[in-house]
Amino acid sequence: QVQLVESGGGLVQPGGSLRLSCAASGFQFSIYYMSWYRQAPGRERELVARITPDSTTNYADSVKGRFTISRDNAKNTLYLQMNSLKPEDTAVYYCNRPTGYWGKGTLVTVSS
User: Fold this and answer.
1) φ, ψ for residue 37 (rounded to 5)?
2) Distance CA 73, CA 33 (A)
3) Is the preceding omega at residue 99 within 30 degrees of 0, hence cis?
4) For residues 32 and 25, what is the distance between their CA atoms, to the nearest angstrom?
5) What is the DSSP code string of the chain?
6) Closest Cα to residue 69, out of 95, 32, 46, 104?
7) What average pLDDT values come out for the chain (112 residues) when binned by 10 residues?
8) CA angle 53, 64, 42 (to 5 degrees)
9) How far apart (Å, rounded) are the C-alpha atoms in residues 52 and 104?
């Protein structure tokens, strides 16, 4: 069965960096586009970044220039490098595979 397991979240100061990982299993990872979403308290889940099978990427305007999505098809792993973090980046970050597959999420807290 499809499994997506996120890791790498934590508490970081404003301006800091984190790298999230999503370990995928139970499907042919290399042929799917994959996405990171996030959900902040009291807000709807929103798309952060997406990557196609050939590693074309797109980003939400709020994270462009600060976040980088990447994938390692040999390791069946999706990444999100987050730099210059802001308090408004605080959220639970989810890995997503179409259609309707989600991990349990990893919490990122940006606070001094």
Assistant:
1) -120, 165
2) 11
3) yes
4) 12
5) --EEEEE--EEE-TT--EEEEEEEESS-GGGS-EEEEEE-TTS--EEEEEE-TT--EEE-TTTTTTEEEEEETTTTEEEEEE-S--GGG-EEEEEEETTTEE---EEEEE--
6) 95
7) 97 98 97 97 96 96 98 97 98 95 97 96
8) 95
9) 22
